[in-house]
Amino acid sequence: MAGILSGVMYAPLTAVFLIAEITQGYNLIIPLMIVSAVSYVIVRRIEAFSMDTRELARKGICLPITVI
Predict the structure, then answer these.
(1) What is residue 22's predicted lDDT score, i.e. its pLDDT?
(2) In whole angstroms, what is the distance from residue 64 CA to residue 52 CA?
(3) What pLDDT does 55 receive?
(4) Half-sphere exposure of residue 1, counting CA atoms within 13 Å on the CB side?
(5) How far apart (Å, rounded) are the C-alpha atoms in residues 4 and 39?
(6) Which whole-number Å values give the CA distances from 46 to 5, 24, 26, in the listed order?
(7) Are 15 and 9 in contact (CB under 8 A)?
(8) What CA–CA distance (Å, rounded) separates 13 from 17?
(9) pLDDT score of 66
(10) What is the pLDDT along the chain (68 residues), one digit of tens a residue?
(11) Where are the beta strands (DSSP E) in 1-68?
(12) Which long-range contacts (CB under 8 A, 24 or more apart) does 39-44 make?
């Protein structure tokens, strides 16, 4: 769940804390961090824009892009 959330929304910390809170699995924080970080890096290499900013980029609205 954390991997999908951090990849789709480009929000790895949100994914880690949200999933830890929902599942009450605080002993899984380190694995959640690893999965979220890997997912975020892979998706950033494939897609430059998140699902929120993709439509703005298609319309030509200037967005700052950070490259990993």
Answers:
(1) 93
(2) 14
(3) 82
(4) 13
(5) 7
(6) 16, 32, 31
(7) yes
(8) 6
(9) 61
(10) 899 999 888 889 999 999 999 999 889 899 999 999 999 999 989 987 788 778 887 887 776 766 55
(11) none
(12) 39/2, 39/3, 39/4, 39/6, 39/7, 39/12, 40/6, 40/7, 40/10, 40/12, 41/68, 42/7, 43/7, 43/8, 43/10, 44/10, 44/68
Determine contact, residues 15/32, Cβ cutoff 8 Å. Answer: yes
- Find the helix packing angle between 2-9 and 29-46, rounded to 10°: 40
Tokens of 15: 């994914």
Q: Give me the sign of the Cα torsion angle 39, 35, 37, 15.
A: positive
> Nearest CA to 32 among 24, 20, 44?
20
